[in-house]
Structure to design on (73 residues):
């Protein structure tokens, strides 16, 4: 699964052309699900992110992966 980020939607306003958006868009999130056995799947995430957003995204993904794990157990 691959997601291409092109901008923001905030308060109903779509922004794909501002200078702030142009600093990072387009960027990509790639999710790879790999079957390892009868009931095991490896989940991999490959993501492009600007250095300014790296810590924020890392923290959000740590929480998201825990949620994904809870849902699947």
């Amino acid at each position: 699964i691959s997601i291409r980020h092109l901008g923001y939607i905030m308060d109903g306003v779509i922004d794909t052309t501002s200078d702030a958006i142009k600093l990072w868009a387009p960027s990509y999130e790639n999710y790879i699900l790999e079957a390892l056995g009868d009931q095991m799947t490896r989940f991999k995430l490959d993501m492009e992110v600007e250095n300014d957003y790296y810590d924020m995204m890392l923290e959000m993904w740590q929480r998201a992966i825990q949620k994904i794990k809870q849902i699947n157990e």
In short: The first strand starts at residue 2 and ends at 5. The CA atoms of residues 39 and 72 lie 11 Å apart. The radius of gyration is 15 Å.
